[in-house]
Structure formats: C-alpha cells, structure tokens
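Dear U.,

For the methods section draft, I wanted the exact inputs and outputs in one place so we can describe them consistently. I've listed the two proteins in the order they'll appear in the manuscript figures. Please don't edit the token lines directly; just add comments below if something needs changing.

First protein:
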Amino acid sequence: MLIIGLVVLVGGYFIFFANSQVPVQENNQQDSDSAGNSVLEGDTTTKDEMTGGNTTAQNHEVIFTDTGYAPAELKIKAGDTVIFKNQSSSQSWTASAMHPAHSVYSGTSLQSHCPDPENNDFDQCQAGNPGTSWSFTFSKAGTWAYHNHVVAGKFGKIVVE
C-alpha cells in the first residue's frame, strides 16, 4: 500500500508541476512550404496571399496496381496535373466516368472525343502497358469519378477545388 501511495504522490507531483514549469521557447526558424516559399512556423499566411493570388500548379500521382487506384480519392486545385502510373501486371486505360461512354468530364462520348490530341477530355483513349503513365490537367472544378476502361471494376475519384 505504501508503494502505491508513493507512486500516486510522485505521479501527481509531476503532472501538476510539470505543466507550469516548462519554459516556452519561440521558434523563429524559417521553413519552406511545398512550393519552396519561405514560411515562419506558426505563420498563417496562405500561399495565395504570399503569391498575390497566383498559385503554382502542382503535379500529383495516382498509382494503378492490381488492387486498384491509390489513392482512391485525391483532392487537388484547378490547374493541377495528375499523373496516372500503371504499376499493375496488366494494361490500364484511365477514363472519366461512366463506363463505357466516358462522358462525365467532357460531356462527349468516347467515340466523339477519342483520339484526344489536345488531352482535354479526361480520357487516356488507349490502353497503356505496365510501366507506362498518362497525365491529365484538370481545369474544371468538381468531383470527377474515373475508372480503368480495361478493368472497369477499378475506379477512383478526383476532387478539384
């Protein structure tokens, strides 16, 4: 009983006094954000404020494997590019929902927009072998579901803000 009481007393002392005796240090070290902009820790300035409203477009990766797309949902900004990499053991053909028309993003059917030399219809328009990649720049805000046209049960979602 004495040992338990001693443990409770010592533990209570540290809990009560440890919070009040810890010195607070201000950290003024500069860090960089993902775009290489200088930022102070604790600074609440947004990237838009730092760049005068001009944000730099970002590149993002979505990996297709035998189990599907990863990440299954990705949030990006309008103007960002997503690189879809096929790391599966089969072909991949990334395209806008719904299978088989691929019309949700562009408003046109697969037959109308493929081939897509301007690459503005969110449709790869052909199957890519393992190890290949295809990229698409999203210009429209919204939630854009997509699928693998070769293996239609594999799908994902891009949320463009």
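Second protein (the one for the lower panel):
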Amino acid sequence: MRRLSQLLVGIFFVAGLSVVGIGTTAAATSCVAVLGNGGCMSSIQAAVDAAAPGDTITVGGGTFAESVSITKSLTLQGSTSGTTIDATGKDHGIQVSGTSNVTVSGFTVMNAGLSGIAVMNSSNVNVSGNSLLYNDKNLTPQATCPGAPGSDQDDCGAALYVSGVTNSTFDSNIIQHNADGVLVTDETGPSSGNTFSHNTITLNGPECGLTLASHNGTAPNGVFNNTVSNNDISGNGASGVGIFSPFPGTAAYNNVVSGNTLFNNGHAGVTLHTHAPGTNDNNNQIINNTFGNNNTKGDDSAQVGVTTAIILSAPANPITGTVITGNTINDETIGIYLGNATGSTISDNTNNAIIPVLTVPGGSGGVPSTAVSASAYAWPTSSGLTTAFAVSFNSATAGNGQVLFGTSCSGLTGTATEDAFAGTTSHWVLVTRDDFSTAGTGLTPGTTYYYAVATVSSSGVTVDNNGGKCYTVTIPSTATTTGPPSPPASGGSA
C-alpha cells in the first residue's frame, strides 16, 4: 500500500511538472491569408483574438477589408509582397490600445474615416515600415470630422494618431495624402519618450506633417521628451513640425526636432504656437535641420505672411528656453521669427534668409508691416474718360509691387504690377486694367474696387502678402486730372 501511495505521488508530481511546462510554452506564430488557405485564418482580427500574449501573426499579401483592434502584446507582420488593410467605412485601420510590447510592421493602411493607425494608452510600441495613405476620409469641406474628438475636427486625428503613449518607436513609415500626417497628443494621457525617425511625411493637407500638441489642460498631461529626427517632412498643408499649447494648462515641452528636411510646407518648417496664459511650450530644441521655402500659405495666427523657416509665436504667454542651433536655412524670407520668445539660444546656423532673425517682443507682430494708401484718378482722352487708381505701400521684403483687384474681397481677379521701382521695398502701382487682359485701358467710373497688395520675386513668387488684408477705392465719375499721374521720384510711400 505504501509503494502504491508513493507511485501516485510520483505520478502527480510529474503531472505537476507537465502543467508548469505548458504554462511557459514559447510564443507561437500563426498566419493569415486572404482565402484562409494553407492552414491560415482569413481574418486578421480573428487571428489577433485567438493569439496569446507575445505571439507573432504573419499576414500574407493581398487586401483585407477590415479594422484591426490590438489590446495585447504581440507582433503583427505584413508580407513583403504587399499587405493592405482597406478600412473604408471604418474609423481606424489598426488600433492599438491599453497594452504594451506591440509591433506593427509591413502594412499599407488606406481609406480609414479617422486614423490609419491609432495608438492609445500604450507603451513600448513599435510601428515601422508601414504606408499610411488616403486616410482621414471623414473630413468635410467645412473642416469638421464626424467621429473625431472635438480638438481634432480639422484633421480627423491624423493618419498616425498617438495619444497617451510612452517609450515607443515610429520608424521608416510613409505617410502621404492624408488630411494630417502624425498627431502626438495627450488627449487620453501624457505622451513622452517617443521617437519618430526616418519617416517620409509628405503631401498631407490641409494640416501639418507632424504635430506635437497638448490638448489636455489637466494634470497629469503633456507632450514632452519626444524626439523627431531624420524625417523628410515636405509639401504639407500647414507646419512641417508643429509644437502647440493652445489653452491654459496645456504643455508641449522638452521635445527635440533634429536632422529633418523641411521644404515647401504651407506654414513654417517648425512652428511653436501658444495663445493663452498658463501654457508651456518651453525648452524645445530645433537642431541640425535643413529648411527651404516654408510658410508658403502664410501664418495668419502669427501674422507672418512671408516664407519663413521657424516661427515662435506667443502673444499671451512667452515661450522660453528654445534652442535653435546647427540648422541650414535657404530660400526663405525670414529665417527665424521670434514672437515673444525669451531666453532663446540661437547659434551656429547657416542662415541665408533675407531676414535671418526677426524679433517681435509682443508675440504676433504683423509681418509684413505694410502701410497702404490709394488715390483714384480720371482724365479725358479723345476716346472718352480714362480711369485708374494708384496704390503706394512699403513692404518688409524687396521685390516687385503687385496689386490684386476686383469687385469683392473674395473676387480679386485682376493683377497689376509696378515696373518703375521693381526690386525695392517702396512701391507705387498704377492700376488701369488687368496686366494679363487684352481689354482696353480704364476702369469703370463710379465703381468701388476692392484690392490687396503684395510683393513678388522676379520669378513671380509672392514673398510678402501684407497678411491678406483687403482695401477699397472708388473711381471718380468725372475728370480729376488732365492726364495720367506720374510716379513719385522715389517710388512713394504711405
């Protein structure tokens, strides 16, 4: 009997070892195929649901019409032959939330209503080697986005949405043709210690290439200690890189923007904005980047209407401790615009801008600062009354003076450009007709014309648009002079 009891104990002991062994089995690999052949599942989401933490799921080539939610640690790997997630009609292509140690790699994600890939409330996530194309589909012409948070209405949360994420890596992704490229925010919690490197973030509009934006004014919050390095960020609708703290309590600080190429963005290559007291856009670093022809649309918020590499604008609360060093700036009117930015360190930049550094103590200073005046004329000729108006203005940037005119501020269809004082900052333009029209000379007597002024380069690129301001002038109905007015000897000013 004693030997039987010892034998039973031995059996139970071995069984116990067996159970322990099962619990420590190495992570498994499963597969997904479009047709579910070869023993693979046909749905990525089904494979994710069936996986144990730490598993790897390989997804074959082809297109999968689904939205994938990941809430456990695993690796999701697309095929080198091309794996596409078509998220048409769905909010996200891939969403990682409330987990850690996740890798997503090798996918093309398209047509999501909001973000192609969204990562929220997670850590140690690696998103690499993916293409995010034509997402943010819910954006309307009115700049609203059904389903997006209130602070993301104008961009649907961006193609890559990162919120409440720490210590994660976003590397070598292609992000193109979305409403917004990358949004890093604290809407669901602080975002810190993340790296965005070697990504191609181009042709996203109307919004930014990559945004570090604090949208949560309540502690614990903030977007801080993130690194944006060695990316190509070009041709986006707004800023190449934007660092924003828009309302009291928001904080985007201690971030590093380094080694990026930033060209042809609608707003500055790097923009720091804060528009309220009690914000923190401090101690960010902008180092070793290359800039060219940014702020092509003009920054209305900062009132900077010329091409500019870097804009710091803080009319309500100073931005302090910014480091701007080692950058190369070409083909810009203003290299570095400092609007109420105190204690900035600016050193060792190759700054070839027309105005290398412009400091405006009060914040949004209104660049260019242009004084505008106009006089209207009518003079008799053998064919009847000829009419015109002459505009005098000064500009911050030398070039050819230009007047755009029409019958409403939204309908400036005519163009007149000066010849006598081209390439100066003092302009006098006589407007008798559209330079590009074959119609006769003379405007319509008694008509009120609306006009705006600008300065253009010799190649026709607008370098100073006076902030887009619109003015009016009324043409007289009877003769005021015996002949057309002559320009002032020096070009005139207001």
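Candidate sentences for the figure legend, describing the second protein: The first strand starts at residue 29 and ends at 32. The first helix runs from residue 2 to 23.

Thanks,
Y.
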